[in-house]
Design goal:
The complex is a heterodimer. Chain A is built from 10 helices and no strands. By secondary structure, chain A is mainly α. In chain B, helix 28 runs antiparallel to helix 30 and helix 30 packs antiparallel against helix 31. In chain B, 46% of the residues are buried. Chain B has 2 domains: 470 residues, no CATH class; 277 residues, Alkaline Phosphatase, subunit A (3-Layer(aba) Sandwich), CATH 3.40.720. In chain B, 61% of the residues lie in helices and 5% in strands. The two termini of chain B are 41 Å apart. Classes of the chains: A mainly alpha, B mainly alpha. Chain A: It is found in: Endoplasmic reticulum membrane. Chain A: It comes from Nepenthes gracilis.
């Protein structure tokens, strides 16, 4: 493990380092994407997450999709060997694959199955995939070592790792907590699947972005810190 | 730190368990007191003094209702004052709205809201009482209290959970017996209580709390026609509107005044039509009494259920032609108890007072009677209470005092001031009253002016009645604080003991691990799965404080369990190496794939079980697989039942054949289990062909045969398996084998003993599991057969996962995962935290005559099928888990061996459960005034207690089996050592079977 992280830190030094400003810009864009999508849904289609969860989610992920994939593709690993278009392609492929994994995970954790909920589940898992797997696919492609480092071990090294890892974990953990009010008998419309899970996921995503920003700023101030941490 | 020896560990654990047992049984008895109730109904014998134990029996079963009515009249010497009763229940109406509070009239708004009722009160045509209701102030128990006069304990409800019908002696039953016709309009609780009693009824459900208009309209629309009918004697009206208004907007809701106006209109209509009109149309013979009661009050927020002044302040209003109290000040604070309504109505309508009544007749209610009749009524009430007292205080000695063979002077001398302890005081009060009554009777005959004596007698009777009533009702509602605190302390201490033991063991095993293996991984650091296992306990503890979470507990277990699986999955992913390198990685990959497939099996099986029963309380109407199957038809259920039966049998047989014990023995075991499995399938095919079970003689015999075969084969396997391990020759082999060492290696011997115990506990574990699954296949509802198979799959998958310990899970994490799986499965089988889902039908399979014990045992095993299955699987777990070889003790003594194998698997479930039990006890104490204390929290507490019992039983089976196996193995090793000198005695057969085994072991 120790040896491997050394390798990565070496690798990371080769690749483009993201400045704190760049990270701020990227996260702001991602956040604004979601906000704009909700505004559009409210303004032009007069729907919101509670009145029509499936279509609002559809709108959100369609607006968010180009922003996330195009932006994160800029941060691709090995930029010398891998062209920008290839990274975008990887992101686009990663989106449905990640959505499948997330949908299956959600169903295993108790998401309702049925035609009534099908559209909502699909759109929700696509949105969640945009928060978690699609950017990682755009950046890393199919490199198992990187995937394992980010998602199985949660040991981010370097600013790109933070920007991938923390928002993704935030979104997943937020969704997990968001599922808790669902079975309660408060008779509120937002207790429906997947409304409160989406709220939780969005909140977690925002918290994750803020945290990743903090880490990026912190590590750009003291660049040697990450080596100590990795070991 | 000195290592804890096995004996000390056992003693401490047993102390903890004993303390816990004492604690929770004392708590249950203190919190839910069981009061002895009298069974049966009171008949003519209630008009006779309890002292008069004549053998003459009234056989009134054959008498017609009219004869019975005149018999009652004759015996009681009190003619019924009224013929018809209109019993109007205004749900949730606080007495304050009508009668004011603390001697003050109600607020102007309230006075204006009910003008007609207020005018009745002001004119003295009605008498109103603040009728104190006993907690729980919820509708059904309060209705029971009003019609039976008894305050039921919670366990009374729990013990007859199969029916909600009121089986105790009650007013409506008495009315029915004297031939009354009854009509009910309103809340359907009445129909649940008295399913067959009503001539006509129109019930509305109280479920839709938001509706305040229709619920009352549904009652009122029948009123004009019903009031003009004269075929009924009792008309029950139950208006829910006021309660619903309170639930929505509280006491001061804007809807309250219009709702009260509506109620006033109803009262006006009834009073004008029926009560007043008796002498005009129908003549003297049809006198109607209108009784307006509320079942409970409400808090400022409109809630009820607890025991605060606002909630218990309910109304009792008697309106009848007989009530003309001239100087009646309407706002004096007249208070009574809610249960007092029962004896008053019983006396007024000439029926015996119900047996378990604790109420006292209301004095003003008897104004229409003569002095003689009034004293007689008090006497009847006293006799009834005396009988009830005698049932609770077996050596009550005052029953014989009431004989009247004394002179007058003697009698006067016996009257004394009463004080002292309970029994003596009650007796003394009663005898005073009885003596005065007799005196009054004799003077009355001699035409003395006796109003003074009369008043004295009435006072004496009320002295006795009120103190008896207070004592009797306190028996039910009072909670002995000291006892509860002591019980809680005991539970808390036992919890601490168990957790301390666990902590010590964990530290010890950590030390052993540190010295035994190289530090490839960080043992000191807490990994995420361990943190999550602790978090699960925390989540459960937190969720117990919320009634909604308790109602929907199945979601929590499933969610937490699948999250746990996902976390373990993530952990498995961590160790998948990078790149497809070398042949060395090949085996590793294979193992990872088998791990991943066991996760998938766990997750999928868990999800299917989650979808099988919707469960819970609030969302039961949502679609689920069981409803879909029941809708699809019986043949589908039957084929699924058969399929899961076959799958269970084949999975068990396959697992048996994995055992490396003596072949022919394994064959026998497989054969007996196959036979019993086929018998179970035959039983399913032949006798369970309808949704209800046929209870024919053949079915019963067959079920008994299945019980017998399963029992014999399981216990036979468990008893025989340690004797048949090839460990006997192990020592000899170790000494003769040149590859290991020249001298008999102690280490190898111990390894052999360990391997032997492993093999036999593997076999015993599968014997228990298969036996339990087949039993459940027979007992559970047909729809539950597939979940039973899924539980078996989950056990299989988790054992498959635990058997390679490359991921270095701590043992306690694995055991707690099994415990969580068991609880998730408990809810997956359709159980909930309400008593309604207990399957009573299955509890009579194979029982020829009714026996509470056997059907109770069967009911318990059906309800706790899943936790018990997972506890039994601990025997199997002990055989497969990988850490047993870590700290091999120096000598293969019984103690350390046992401690190594049994301690953690037994202490972890015990520890988790004791935490949950202790915390829930605290929650229950805190929630004792909560609205849902009787409907949600108390049933849940019973389930928690039953789970505790289940864990005791399961763990004692596990520990017993392990102790037996280890004992036999060490015995055999010692025997083997002595036999080693005489090699001739070792039979050829043993050697052959051993070599087979050794070959496999080597592979």
């Amino acid at each position: 493990m120790k040896k491997r992280s050394d390798e990565y830190s070496v690798q990371n030094n080769d690749t483009m380092k993201v400045s704190a400003f760049g990270a701020l810009w990227l996260h702001l864009m991602c956040g604004f994407g979601v906000a704009i999508a909700f505004w559009v849904a409210h303004q032009f289609y007069s729907i919101n997450l509670i009145s029509d969860p499936a279509h609002s989610l559809l709108l959100v992920w369609i607006v968010e999709c180009p922003i996330v994939i195009l932006l994160y593709s800029l941060l691709r690993d090995n930029s010398a060997e891998c062209s920008y278009l290839k990274a975008v392609g990887r992101g686009i492929l990663g989106l449905p694959a990640g959505a499948l994994v997330i949908a299956l995970g959600g169903i295993a954790l108790g998401a309702p199955i049925g035609t009534r909920y099908l559209l909502g589940t699909i759109n929700w898992s696509l949105l969640m995939s945009l928060f978690t797997f699609a950017p990682a696919a755009a950046v890393f492609g199919s490199s198992w070592a990187d995937w394992r480092r980010i998602f199985a071990n949660t040991r981010p090294v370097g600013s790109v790792d933070y920007m991938l890892c923390l928002p993704a974990h935030g979104a997943v953990i937020g969704s997990w907590f968001g599922a808790w009010p669902m079975p309660l008998d408060w008779e509120r419309p937002w207790q429906e699947w997947p409304v409160c899970v989406t709220y939780g996921g969005l909140a977690g995503y925002v918290v994750g972005m803020v945290a990743s920003l903090c880490f990026v700023i912190f590590s750009s101030r003291r660049p040697q810190q990450q080596h100590v941490k990795a070991e | 730190m000195s290592a804890m020896t096995c004996t000390r560990l056992t003693i401490w654990t047993l102390c903890g368990v004993l303390l816990q047992m004492i604690g929770f049984s004392v708590f249950v008895l203190g919190f839910f007191p069981v009061k002895p109730t009298l069974v049966g109904v009171s008949g003519p014998e209630s008009y006779r003094s309890p002292a008069n134990r004549s053998t003459e029996d009234f056989n009134f079963t054959g008498t017609s209702s009219d004869e019975l009515r005149s018999l009652f009249w004759e015996l009681s010497k009190i003619p019924p004052s009224y013929d018809r009763l209109i019993f109007m229940v205004v749900d949730g109406l606080p007495a304050e709205f009508v009668l004011g509070k603390d001697g003050q009239p109600p607020s102007i708004a309230m006075l204006d809201a009910m003008p007609y009722t207020q005018s009745l009160l002001a004119n003295g045509m009605a008498i109103g009482y603040h009728a104190k209701a006993a907690p729980p102030t919820v509708t059904m128990p309060r209705l029971k209290a009003m019609v039976s006069g008894a305050i039921g304990g919670f366990l009374d409800v729990a013990f007859n959970f199969h029916t909600q019908a009121l089986v105790d002696d009650n007013l409506l039953g008495q009315f029915f017996r004297i031939g009354w016709k009854m009509v009910m309009l309103g809340d359907d609780t009445w129909l649940k209580l008295f399913p067959q009693l009503f001539l006509r009824h129109d019930a509305v459900s109280s479920f839709f709390v938001k509706d305040t208009v229709l619920v009352d309209h549904n009652v009122s629309r029948h009123l004009p026609s019903e009031l003009n009918q004269d075929d009924w004697n009792l008309l029950i009206l139950h208006y829910l509107g006021v309660d619903h208004v309170g639930h929505i907007g509280g006491r001061k809701s804007v809807l309250m005044v219009p709702k009260l106006k509506e109620m006033d209109e109803v009262i006006k209509m009834i009073h004008r039509n029926n009560v007043l009109s008796y002498d005009k149309d129908r003549g003297q013979s049809q006198q109607t009494l209108l009784v307006i009661v509320s079942d409970h009050g409400m808090t400022d927020g409109g809630n009820h259920g607890g025991s605060s002044q606002d909630e218990t302040d309910s109304l009792a209003l008697f309106i009848g032609p007989g009530f003309k109290v001239p100087q009646y000040s309407s706002y004096t604070h007249k208070s009574a108890n809610q249960v007092d309504i029962t004896p008053t109505l019983a006396i007024l309508f000439g029926v015996p007072i119900p047996l378990n009544n604790v109420g006292v007749v209301i004095a003003e209610g008897l104004d229409s009677l003569t002095d003689d009749q009034r004293l007689r009524a008090l006497e009847l009430n006293s006799w009834q209470l005396l009988k009830l007292l005698a049932a609770q205080l077996p050596d009550l000695s005052c029953l014989s005092l009431a004989s009247d063979d004394h002179d007058d002077d003697d009698r006067w001398s016996t009257i004394s001031t009463c004080d002292g302890i309970l029994k003596g005081k009650l007796c003394c009060l009663y005898s005073n009253a009885a003596v005065l009554h007799n005196l009054w009777r004799s003077k009355n005959i001699l035409r003395f002016n006796s109003s003074d004596l009369y008043n004295q007698t009435v006072w004496a009777y009320y002295d006795f009645l009120s103190s008896a009533s207070v004592w009797l009702s306190r028996r039910v509602t009072d909670k002995p604080v000291g006892q509860l605190a002591l019980a809680l302390l005991a539970m808390f201490l036992s919890c601490l003991v168990v957790l301390w033991l666990l902590f010590c063991l964990q530290r010890e095993s950590l030390k052993e691990t540190l010295c035994c293996i190289d530090l490839k991984y960080d043992v000191q650091r807490w990994s995420f799965d361990e943190i999550f296992a602790l978090m699960v306990v925390l989540i459960l503890v937190i969720s117990m404080g919320s009634s909604s979470m308790i109602e929907e507990e199945q979601y929590i277990w499933h969610f937490v369990m699948s999250t746990f699986c996902c976390i373990l999955f993530r952990k498995a992913m961590q160790s998948i190496p990078v790149g497809m390198q070398s042949s060395l990685g090949n085996g590793l990959y294979k193992r990872r794939y088998s791990e991943i497939s066991s996760f998938l099996a766990l997750l999928i099986a868990g999800r299917i079980m989650r979808g099988w029963h919707q469960g819970g309380v609030n969302w039961t109407h949502f679609p689920d697989i069981s409803k879909w199957l029941e809708h699809a038809g019986h043949s589908y259920i039957k084929s699924i039942q058969l399929l899961s039966g076959i799958l269970i049998i084949s999975l068990s047989l396959f697992s048996f054949s994995m055992s490396r014990l003596n072949r022919s023995f394994i064959f026998q075991v497989k054969f007996t289990f196959l036979i019993s499995g086929l018998l179970v399938l035959h039983h399913i095919m032949k006798y369970q062909d309808n949704t209800f079970l046929s209870s024919s003689y053949n079915a019963t015999v067959m079920a008994q045969v299945i019980y017998a075969i399963l029992g014999v084969s399981t216990f036979g396997t468990v008893l025989a398996s340690p004797w048949l391990t090839p460990a006997l020759i192990c020592g000899e082999w170790a000494s003769s084998d040149t590859q290991l060492s020249a001298s008999p290696s102690m280490d190898a011997q111990i390894r052999c003993v360990l391997a032997g115990t492993r093999e036999s506990s593997y076999l015993s574990g599968w014997a228990y599991i298969s036996c339990w699954c087949l039993l459940q296949l027979l007992l559970q509802q047909p729809i539950n057969s597939m979940p039973v198979f899924l539980l078996l799959v989950q056990i299989w998958a988790s054992m498959n996962y635990f058997c390679n310990d490359e991921l270095h899970h701590k043992q306690w994490v694995q055991v707690s995962a099994l415990y969580f799986l068991g609880m998730a499965g408990h809810f997956g089988l359709g159980n909930t935290n309400t008593l309604a889902t207990i399957d009573v039908a299955g509890a009579f399979i194979g029982i020829s005559s009714y026996s509470t014990l056997f059907s109770g045992v069967l009911m318990f095993s059906i309800t706790y099928a899943s936790p018990m299955l997972f506890l039994l699987s601990l025997v199997l777990y002990i055989s497969v888990e990988g850490t047993s070889f870590l700290g091999i003790p120096d000598d293969a003594d019984l103690g350390p061996l046992l401690k190594m194998r049994v301690a953690i698997p037994c202490l972890v479930p015990l520890g988790i459960n004791s935490i949950l039990l202790t915390v829930y006890t605290i929650v229950l104490l805190q929630m004792r005034n909560h609205l849902f204390i009787w409907s949600v929290f108390s049933p849940k507490y019973l389930y928690v207690c039953a789970t505790t019992v289940c864990i005791y039983i399961g763990l004692s089976i596990v520990a017993g089996t392990q102790i037996y196996i280890c004992w036999v193995c060490s015995l055999r090793r010692r025997m083997g050592m002595s036999l080693m000198t005489d090699t001739n005695k070792i039979s050829q057969k043993w050697q052959r079977s051993y070599f087979d085994w050794a070959l496999k072991e080597g592979q």
